Amino acid sequence: QVQLVESGGGLVQPGGSLRLSCAASGSIFSINAMGWYRQAPGKQRELVATITGAGSISYADSVKGRFTISGDNAKNTVSLQMNSLKPEDTAVYYCHADNVHTWSMIRDYWGQGTQVTVSS
Questions:
Q1: How does the average pLDDT of the chain come out, rounded?
Q2: How far apart are CA 104 and CA 39, in angstroms?
């Protein structure tokens, strides 16, 4: 059984910073990529940033220059440093693991979500 556990959400003022972390646990052989998605009220879930096992990184245009994703393949962890936060960044942020190889299957997994609220 694979689980993704997130931490680091909260309330922050505009212009502030937060760091999200996610750890994948279980009998994992490898993970193709890990990343973060977010979903604001009334909107569809959208990609924020991803990082592959080879270190290839991509960002949504809306967060480029403000957010930084990093990962540790050996620990199956991914983090998202969010700077210069804006009210429009308010959403539930979900950790995602792509093509997780275990002894019995290959599939994607999602974390439970962590709330990020940017407000004065």
A1: 96
A2: 31
Overall size of the chain counted in residues: 120
**Token pair of 26 as six digits:** 């279980």
How many of the other CB atoms lie within 10 Å of CB of 60? 15
Looking at the DSSP bridge assignments, the partners of residue 95 are: 36
Residues 55-110: pLDDT tens digits?
999 999 999 999 999 999 899 999 999 999 999 999 999 999 999 999 889 999 99
Q: Which residues of 5-28 are buried (b: 16+ CB within 10 A; e: fewer)?
A: ebebbeebeeeeebebbbbbeeee
Residue 104: φ, ψ to 5°: -115, -20
CB-facing half-sphere around the CA of 43: CA atoms within 13 A: 14
For 58, half-sphere exposure in the C-beta direction (CA atoms, 13 angstrom radius) is 8
Query: Is the backbone of residue 75 left (phi > 0), alpha (psi -120 to 50) or beta?
Result: alpha
Contacts of 57 (CB under 8 A, 6+ apart): 49, 50, 51, 69
